[in-house]
Amino acid sequence: MTTIAELPPGFADKVLSAQSTFRSVMDAMARPGSVQRIVPGAGTPETMMRGTAAIALTLFDHDTPLWLDSRMAESSGVVKWLKFHTGAPVVQNSSVASFALISDGGALPPLERFAFGTSEYPDRSTTLILQVERLDAGRSFELRGPGIDGAATLQAAIEPFDLFERLHVNEALFPRGIDVVLVADDAVVAIPRTTRVMSKGS
Amino acid sequence: MNAPAYNFAYLDEQTKRMIRRAILKAITIPGYQVPFASREMPMPYGWGTGGVQVTAAILGPADVLKVIDQGSDDTTNAISIRKFFAKTAGVATTTATDAATVIQTRHRIPETALHENQVLVYQVPIPEPLRFLEPRETETRRMHALAEYGLMHVKLYEDIARFGHIATAYAYPVKVNARYVMDPSPTPKFDNPKMDNCPALQLFGAGREKRIYAIPPYTKVVSLDFEDHPFEPYRFNAPCALCGAENSYLDEIVTDDKGSRMFVCSDTDYCEGRQTAGHHGSLSAAPYKEKAGSHG
């Protein structure tokens, strides 16, 4: 049995690390497709990348129900680490989750299982934090929308392969929708619901 | 007695997390007002409690902070907020628009064009543009949900019927990303065009009304108008008396009780910069120079 003493540590400096992590995520969200770096300052439990761990410590607390994909949920290290460092409740019902942590993109459930928010409160939606293989190479995508001067190009190796096709629901549902944060180690790219993504081939 | 009395940037970490989550959702839904659990701040409502909370949530030790009140770096509100963050966060402060990474503003957008590495934080008294037309929050929320903004156009039309032009001079409503009608805070409508396609991130905080909203960079922001009565930014028809600027927003200053007045740039940093660069207006030897000796 894992004891508290064996858990990977949280931020060494929780105030300033949370601030710098937040600014990276905010910049990523404000400039979709741009690759932002998170300065890793925390330990990471198994299956969790450094960027994901930093985002968890920065944004999660008792007010944010979490949904974990099966690979994360089956790791007692992840569950205990999240519980100890953030206090966020882990829920089984993904449609009430503020955040969903996905380590196995291939097993991403249909997006309808998450919260899209309501027309009156579109902010009450799930933010997906999706761990991906790479954000510096791979298939090419063209991004357009608020935060982007004209068009931006993203090169990424991600699963599920049809993620951006699935995110087309954001176009029909707006202002309701799903916001996605892609994490590859310490690199972060955000795809807010306003971003339109087109595949440019490889 | 060296123990710090406050957390970095005053707010506790739980509050910052809550505000940070609200900011992220605000960015993803441009112009939509995200409710947040606004805290009491050590200053009265109306003095920028919303802007201060947003600034406190984003500020880091490497930031350079500028605070303006009606364009001026030198008014009580601007000075006290600047000192507040210099004390609680130890950040560098500046009055130069170019040098700032975070600019908190009350009722103006700087004349100097903003760039990508900047965040503009607005202090907002009443975030709901429809509030004076429909006092019920439940109704305005539904109007936003349905994008039902006819009432706002009726209001602007009534301006035209009564005055012959759209008489709204500040807090002039805008539509963000072709979806939400948004109150730009009580900025003069002169500043509205600067919000459109702005390279900097714009964040809005309303402390008393507990709302945060945002305009991401490079986002379309259109001032509401009619085909036959297009939006026109208003400006006094005069050059600045100190720096001679012909295209800046001007304050009117009454100088005696016989009707004399002068017009000066509302943006003090812009005006001082122009004077340093050798531009002069008709009243360049104004009392202003006595205290600002560095500008010769």
Highlighted features:
heterodimer; A: 202 residues; alpha/beta; Rossmann fold; six-stranded mixed beta sheet; three-stranded antiparallel beta sheet; 6 helices; 9 strands; 25% helix; 23% strand; B: 296 residues; seven-stranded mixed beta sheet; 8 helices; 12 strands; disordered C terminus
Tell me the structural class of chain A.
alpha/beta
Largest sheet of chain A, in brief, is: 6 strands, mixed
Percentage of residues in strands of chain B: 15-25%
* SS-based class of chain B: alpha/beta
Strand order of the largest sheet of chain B: 1-9-8-5-4-2-3
Please, what is the CATH homologous superfamily of chain A? Answer: Bacterial phosphonate metabolism protein PhnH
Low-confidence stretches of chain B are: 286-296
Question: Count of helical segments of chain A?
Answer: 6
Average residue pLDDT of chain B: 93
Beta-strand residue fraction of chain A: 15-25%
The major beta sheet of chain B can be summarized as: 7 strands, mixed
Residues in helices of chain B, as a percent range: 25-40%
Report the top-level CATH class of chain A.
Alpha Beta
Cross-sheet strand order for the largest sheet of chain A: 1-8-7-4-3-2
Distance between the termini of chain A: 46 Å
Shape of chain A: globular
Radius of gyration of chain A, whole Å:
16 Å
Tell me the total number of β-strands of chain B.
Answer: 12
Series of H and E elements of chain A = HEHEHHEEEEHHEEE
Summary?
Chain A is of the alpha/beta class and 202 residues long. Chain A has a single domain, classed as 3-Layer(aba) Sandwich (Rossmann fold). Chain A has six helices and nine strands, in the order H-E-H-E-H-H-E-E-E-E-H-H-E-E-E.
